[in-house]
Specification:
Length: 132
């Protein structure tokens, strides 16, 4: 399995643990004010990163491209900045709203890079089988 696929799966599981901890905190306390941060940790962290890892595992030729590791760095930085900033903002610190906005744009840039990777170049999984 390509290195980047392992990185994505490992990072995804960290975000799953973070998201579950937030969910437990909300359930135990009865205070659901941080539900947005919980959702972002689980969907952008756990789910999306696991999907990215799966894509790279299935497309090793694209996983070896330099842009793939750059995409991992950009996307991961965006989500890693967004989740705690959103958590703190929703916990009563509205001054962090610009940080959440900037982190959202960084995360979006990582998604656009992933789209570029998917749509660029050839992929063995997209090649048509020869006619029989």
């Amino acid at each position: 399995m390509p290195r980047i696929a392992h990185l994505y799966f490992r990072t995804a599981i960290v975000f799953l643990i973070v998201g579950l901890c937030m969910g437990l905190k909300m359930g135990i306390s009865g205070d659901h004010s941080i539900i947005g941060a919980h959702a972002h940790a689980n969907l952008l962290g756990w789910v999306t990163m696991a999907i990215f890892g799966g894509y790279y595992a299935l497309n090793p030729e694209k996983a070896e491209r330099r842009i793939a590791m750059l995409q991992y760095a950009v996307y991961t930085f965006g989500v890693a900045l967004m989740v705690p900033a959103l958590y703190l903002m929703l916990s009563g610190n509205p001054a962090l709203e610009p940080v959440v906005g900037i982190a959202s744009l960084i995360t979006f840039a990582g998604v656009l890079m992933f789209a570029f990777i998917i749509f660029s170049g050839s992929s063995a999984t997209l090649r048509r089988a020869p006619a029989e």
